[in-house]
Design goal:
Largest sheet: 17 strands, mixed
Number of helices: 2
Mean pLDDT: 90
Order of helices and strands: EEHEEEEEEEEEEHEEEEE
Number of strands: 17
Structural class: mainly beta
Strand content: over 45%
Distance between the termini: 83 Å
Length: 332
């Protein structure tokens, strides 16, 4: 650690340079108990701090610089992996406490891994409550017509990136406990800010349980709006069986889904959502709760010219089904 500073009148400045500081040892030496174990983290930084300390009035504090961490490995209190990353770095163009503003020049994460455990509650939810009544929102959900910052802070982000990331989401609320793995996650974002009416661009690709998904477009945060193109290939529906079966009793032992199209979304007094594109199922089969085949098909493709949620309208160009089969059982 190398620190240099100076003072003149009511102003002071401090430059701090850190190279490969073992932050894991520092965390373990803290006189507090935390729920996570930092196994390793090497921190480097080069930060400039500036202070204005007037005899009267509000003190001023600004900062700028770069910081990075390598070989990050954080475990939960059971010792299981929580967050890992080969490297993460951030460059701050300017942080101004009095003005409540922060300008982030760049943020990047290389080979991040995260393990998250959730409880969807599906296995303990009565069947009558598993499907919400039409036109109703889940308890506790609130509709918002506009998106505004929760604080008075202004911020901007020139660029951000994630490369070769992995996210494992384990749901203990289904039987058996199951995991969705998102791997090969690569994403980038440019020119985002809290300024109303501005939009940033993004790209993202990932592998999800045997399939691939990619998307690119623009996002506005205030008001919230999204214009995106998406492409989904080879998504295995069988991998979602624990959720489908727990929630409904039915199962999908085989089948893959594909889709590509464009989406437009805008939040407001009336949510505007439109989509157009193509979707398909291949080698699909579903079973009833007793395990008997309910339906199957070799392929199903749908070409949607326009789906408009606000207008409650859908225009379909074509529907093509190959070798569909439906079994119906009833007793008189």
């Amino acid at each position: 650690v190398d620190a240099k500073g100076s003072m003149k009148g009511e102003t002071a400045s401090l430059s701090v340079a850190v190279s490969n500081l073992d932050a894991a040892k520092l965390v373990r030496a803290l006189p507090v108990t935390i729920d996570y174990d930092v196994k390793s983290a090497l921190v480097s930084s080069n930060v400039n701090l500036d202070f204005v300390l007037p005899k009267s009035g509000t003190p001023l504090f600004t900062a700028s610089g770069k910081a990075a961490v390598k070989n990050l490995d954080v475990r939960d209190k059971t010792g299981a992996p929580f967050v890992k990353a080969a490297q993460a770095s951030v460059e701050i163009g300017r942080f101004d406490l009095a003005a409540q503003s922060i300008e982030v020049k760049s943020f990047s994460v290389v080979k991040p891994e995260a393990d998250v455990t959730i409880d969807s509650g599906l296995s303990s939810t009565p069947a009558a409550q598993k499907t919400a009544a039409p036109g109703t929102a889940p308890k506790g959900a609130a509709a918002e017509s506009t998106t505004t910052a929760a604080t008075g802070w202004n911020w901007s982000l020139d660029s951000a990136s994630i490369s070769d990331g992995v996210l494992r989401i384990t749901d203990s609320g289904v039987k058996p406990k199951s995991t969705i793995t998102i791997s090969g996650l690569t994403a980038s974002a440019k020119h985002f800010s809290s300024k109303s009416g501005t939009s940033g661009s993004y790209t993202a690709t990932a592998l999800v349980n045997g399939g691939s998904v990619s998307s690119e477009g623009t996002i506005s945060l205030a008001p919230l709006a999204l214009n995106a193109s998406t492409n989904l290939k080879g998504l295995s529906l069988a991998s979602f069986n624990p959720w489908i079966k727990t929630a409904s009793g039915y199962s999908i032992p085989k089948g893959t889904a594909e889709a590509n199209g464009s989406l437009d979304f805008k939040a407001g007094a009336k949510t505007a959502l439109t989509w157009k594109g193509k979707a398909a199922l291949k080698d699909f089969q579903t079973l009833d709760p007793a395990g008997a085949q309910l339906a199957s098909l070799k392929s199903l493709s749908v070409d949607v010219n326009l789906f408009d949620l606000n207008a409650q309208r859908i225009n379909v160009n074509s529907v093509v089904a190959e070798a569909p089969s439906v079994n119906i059982a009833f007793s008189s």
